[in-house]
Write a structure and sequence with these properties.
single chain; 291 residues; alpha/beta; Rossmann fold; 24% strand; disordered N terminus
Length: 291
């Protein structure tokens, strides 16, 4: 009788306790750790990272900016990598994927910038092997990584990416989905946030060396407190760091306690955040923060 009561109580505790948030297992964390922190603020949400081209490009790459040293990568994700055409309600769309096409534990989508294509985010060797790390993090943790092709950075491109999101979210309805946007791809991140239907599928936005959009304030994802991460180089000649930092602060002051983080790569250039951002740190923060 006593044993039955104890088991029943344990069952009630298990039913009433929320499931622990997924956390990505470590993968080459020592190699991809930030080389140094120069400053922190906003309770740790604002971080200034020490960046040095000679160390972080020439010291990391076998061929600078073209091929990272072998110890930074693993080609294990090639086993599940696919180049597909998926049929969405927007028509057939080309995508590259790594990981589980259905029943994924987590989904990350990368949207390239001007002059890029779906292959950029699948390149194992450029950007210091950082895309390869993201592929491994998704593949080794039962997740799905997607890099889609799209027509432009306007309404048509947004509708195409929305179709990709809707399609793959339907295959893994329980997975949290994060959208990472590099450079001009950020315009699509902000447009997706305004999409009444697709925005409900998004659990986090990752903005890398990109632009800002004041319309995000007050949007549905903003009201849901969807976490936003900004990575930006202090010498970015395309999108000035001060304006992006000002937008980050606007988000924080508009909604105190809003889950937003800004990592400034001191002396970094336009592409530095894509090379240097700690994917595991960012995604684990979002997994534990997003609803």
């Amino acid at each position: 009788m006593i044993r039955s009561l104890i088991l029943g109580a344990l069952a009630l505790v298990c039913l009433s306790s929320p499931a622990a948030a997924l956390q990505l297992e470590p993968y080459k964390d020592d190699l991809f750790a930030y080389p140094g922190i120069l400053k922190t603020g906003d309770g740790g949400d604002y971080v200034v990272v020490d960046y040095n081209e000679m160390r972080d490009i020439n010291g990391r790459d076998q061929v600078p900016e073209r091929r990272v040293k072998q110890n930074y990568i693993s080609l294990q994700p090639k086993r599940s990598q696919k180049d597909l055409v998926v049929m969405t309600d927007k028509g057939p769309l080309k995508v590259m994927t790594v990981g589980k096409l259905s029943g994924a534990s987590v989904i990350t989508i990368y949207l390239h910038g001007q002059g890029g294509n779906r292959q950029q985010g699948m390149n194992d060797f450029t950007f210091g092997g950082n895309f390869n790390r993201l592929k491994n993090l998704m593949d080794r943790n039962g997740g799905l990584y997607i890099t889609p092709e799209f027509s432009d950075f306007g309404d048509k491109g947004e509708s195409e990416v929305a179709g990709v999101i809707d399609y793959f979210k339907a295959q893994s309805p329980q997975a949290k989905l994060f959208v990472a946007c590099g450079s001009m791809g950020g315009s699509l991140c902000w447009k997706l946030a305004q999409d009444a239907e697709t925005s409900t599928h998004i659990s986090g936005l990752i903005i890398l060396g990109s632009l800002w959009d004041e319309h995000f304030i007050g949007s549905a994802p903003f009201k849901r407190r969807v976490p936003v991460f900004f990575g930006h180089g202090s010498r970015d000649p395309v999108f000035g760091v001060e304006k992006q930092q000002a937008f980050y602060q606007t988000i924080r002051t508009s909604a105190p306690g809003y889950p937003a983080r800004f990592h400034r790569f001191e002396s970094g250039n336009h592409g530095t955040p894509i090379r240097m951002t700690d994917w595991r740190g960012v995604l684990n923060w979002m997994l534990s923060t997003s609803r």
